[in-house]
């Protein structure tokens, strides 16, 4: 077995499959594109689903990749086990309807065992297979595997609901009896017992059936296109090759761990208790890559995951004795480890470090609150004579404040408390169930459409034409190819002026005419067929025939409106980079007829001043009437021109570069105006947050922009009329004057309310009652608002009249309640919660004062009658 670095392992895998005519697919963003079923890219195949379900046909059916992935469903195991990670790399080779079982198994065995490649000892490899899959067993024997090293496992069948499925075969490496002290042997593998001896390094999925949950597995129909999907964990391979005890004892993690040693003054020992070192090393990798791909910490979705990872890492830093912020300085180390294949971490390290530093600083301010909460919980338990910290409280500390369970346990144990582990597990499961239901909105992979996948005719989109004479090549109705077609159908022509929806630009609409100029069909939508042709969704008015020629006409007015918005999107993207920062990466867009929508990554709300500057800058470029140039070239040349690739787009050998002077250069396959002046006018309508770390701008152009400005002017004119301002220009001064008058009136009102309260107080505070050792005042009062109750409470505090004060007032048709307490035995917040339901209300507050509102003013008398019993 060769000695290799992690970079060499990754490169050797890819080079092997390149030698077998595979195309290397670059690692995609961790943030899924157009896939609501995934929170993160969680496997090597996740970015290739479009090929497996047949919605897109790849240029080469043989693909290989090294794909970064994130999984956080069992984050609590990271650091405890030898191989759990939140971010990992999956090396894979894939066949889309090309080779199958025979070649896949032969490739795996050659790569692993041949002297030219990894050179693993054959006797160290064991393989599991699905018991009914005799073909796989036989094939392994044919390539030279000892039958005693082939283990049948009933679970070796991959399926997730309906869609592609099939048996899988897994390859394990035997690390020897050192990792099997009880000499259990192969039973560890056969019985699926968790162990450190037999390490799974590769899984080959033989995707050959179309799963249907309604029928037995033995009756699943075969797929029209059989596929191979494999996954080799880089971290596990490197661990075996470098002889690490765990995945962390490799060059993927040790440089990070060495930096943590310097920060903490403690030493990592691969044989000792090193959970905190491992957690920090793992989590900083995930944070660096995820933030680099545009995800930002927040309170929901991906943002919540990142915030949780960061807080968990910080708490483990504290366990190691690290004081102050420490995570951001680890980012360059992560970048250097991964630089050979992922240069983007170092390229974006300043931004990544900025976000981590900001988030860590915020969390450090909340740690004291968490520590205080632990102290309060334990003090309360002591006072109540309890000896167990409840699971829900442990989970709250873990979930809200990021306190690792083991840290909470340690603090509780130090004070002599037990831990409700089962309660914590139940709370954790509830949260995981909620997360799953919020994320998964559909199946993992769609079923293949054989009809659409079979369409291989050539079809050309005519960028510059609005009308074209085109021959009907293919007609699909009810998923069948037909020659004569009526009703609704999908059509492919040899040429077309109709733009297919792509890159955020909506499809063209229009009509199809026959030779006599009669409209015979309406084009309602245009999408791409699996082989890339423009597939026209049509409503047919008169029978169409394959082979005939028709006139295709787009709705020019609709196209013009859309291209104005699309070109303005490019200007907006550039303006965001100039004013907000280069980290404002596109996270989706929509260029519609009436508006444009642009989503981008940013860690804060865009200020009014920034929005005004963006709007101004875009309009200045529009007024300069800059020519919009489109250049066709290769990807490398485009990048050398400084072209930005749009989020989530896949580009072929020839790409289109849209260049707007020196202001904007982007890769884009959409249609655009000839000059910026054709856009006319640009107006931002709204800026809002749509998710953790993702903002959205909605804007309009041309006529819609004019209408937006006119609406704003009309509103101002209306306001001017209401406040009696002679001109719009005087509205601000008039409103300021009215605000000053209102403030003066409010001060006078508060002064009068204070006098009224003082007048009532003498009478109210005469009636002091008692219950046990407590004294209290409970009275209905007449005040104009809740502030009047507070003023009475202030007077009561100054006079030291009783232990508790309960005031209630009818204000309008509702009731308002105030409770104040000077007694350590009575918490105002608790008492108000008991009394509020008597007036059909609810409320809360601090131990010394609390308030509530209720809808049942008729209940005031009954509430006052029950104050004494609530104080007992």
TrEMBL record:
<dbReference type="GO" id="GO:0005829">
    <property type="term" value="C:cytosol"/>
</dbReference>
<dbReference type="InterPro" id="IPR003156">
    <property type="entry name" value="DHHA1_dom"/>
</dbReference>
<dbReference type="GO" id="GO:0006419">
    <property type="term" value="P:alanyl-tRNA aminoacylation"/>
</dbReference>
<keyword id="KW-0963">Cytoplasm</keyword>
<dbReference type="InterPro" id="IPR012947">
    <property type="entry name" value="tRNA_SAD"/>
</dbReference>
<dbReference type="Pfam" id="PF01411">
    <property type="entry name" value="tRNA-synt_2c"/>
</dbReference>
<dbReference type="InterPro" id="IPR045864">
    <property type="entry name" value="aa-tRNA-synth_II/BPL/LPL"/>
</dbReference>
<dbReference type="InterPro" id="IPR018165">
    <property type="entry name" value="Ala-tRNA-synth_IIc_core"/>
</dbReference>
<keyword id="KW-0175">Coiled coil</keyword>
<keyword id="KW-0030">Aminoacyl-tRNA synthetase</keyword>
<dbReference type="InterPro" id="IPR023033">
    <property type="entry name" value="Ala_tRNA_ligase_euk/bac"/>
</dbReference>
<protein>
    <recommendedName>
        <fullName>Alanine--tRNA ligase</fullName>
        <ecNumber>6.1.1.7</ecNumber>
    </recommendedName>
</protein>
<dbReference type="Pfam" id="PF02272">
    <property type="entry name" value="DHHA1"/>
</dbReference>
<dbReference type="InterPro" id="IPR018162">
    <property type="entry name" value="Ala-tRNA-ligase_IIc_anticod-bd"/>
</dbReference>
<dbReference type="GO" id="GO:0000049">
    <property type="term" value="F:tRNA binding"/>
</dbReference>
<keyword id="KW-0436">Ligase</keyword>
<dbReference type="GO" id="GO:0002161">
    <property type="term" value="F:aminoacyl-tRNA deacylase activity"/>
</dbReference>
<keyword id="KW-0067">ATP-binding</keyword>
<dbReference type="GO" id="GO:0004813">
    <property type="term" value="F:alanine-tRNA ligase activity"/>
</dbReference>
<dbReference type="GO" id="GO:0008270">
    <property type="term" value="F:zinc ion binding"/>
</dbReference>
<dbReference type="Pfam" id="PF07973">
    <property type="entry name" value="tRNA_SAD"/>
</dbReference>
<keyword id="KW-0862">Zinc</keyword>
<keyword id="KW-0648">Protein biosynthesis</keyword>
<keyword id="KW-0694">RNA-binding</keyword>
<dbReference type="GO" id="GO:0140096">
    <property type="term" value="F:catalytic activity, acting on a protein"/>
</dbReference>
<dbReference type="InterPro" id="IPR018164">
    <property type="entry name" value="Ala-tRNA-synth_IIc_N"/>
</dbReference>
<feature type="binding site">
    <location>
        <position position="570"/>
    </location>
    <ligand>
        <name>Zn(2+)</name>
    </ligand>
</feature>
<dbReference type="InterPro" id="IPR018163">
    <property type="entry name" value="Thr/Ala-tRNA-synth_IIc_edit"/>
</dbReference>
<dbReference type="InterPro" id="IPR009000">
    <property type="entry name" value="Transl_B-barrel_sf"/>
</dbReference>
<feature type="binding site">
    <location>
        <position position="668"/>
    </location>
    <ligand>
        <name>Zn(2+)</name>
    </ligand>
</feature>
<dbReference type="GO" id="GO:0005524">
    <property type="term" value="F:ATP binding"/>
</dbReference>
<keyword id="KW-0820">tRNA-binding</keyword>
<feature type="coiled-coil region">
    <location>
        <begin position="728"/>
        <end position="762"/>
    </location>
</feature>
<feature type="binding site">
    <location>
        <position position="672"/>
    </location>
    <ligand>
        <name>Zn(2+)</name>
    </ligand>
</feature>
<feature type="domain" description="Alanyl-transfer RNA synthetases family profile">
    <location>
        <begin position="4"/>
        <end position="711"/>
    </location>
</feature>
<comment type="similarity">
    <text>Belongs to the class-II aminoacyl-tRNA synthetase family.</text>
</comment>
<keyword id="KW-0479">Metal-binding</keyword>
<dbReference type="GO" id="GO:0016740">
    <property type="term" value="F:transferase activity"/>
</dbReference>
<keyword id="KW-0547">Nucleotide-binding</keyword>
<feature type="binding site">
    <location>
        <position position="566"/>
    </location>
    <ligand>
        <name>Zn(2+)</name>
    </ligand>
</feature>
<dbReference type="InterPro" id="IPR002318">
    <property type="entry name" value="Ala-tRNA-lgiase_IIc"/>
</dbReference>
<dbReference type="InterPro" id="IPR050058">
    <property type="entry name" value="Ala-tRNA_ligase"/>
</dbReference>
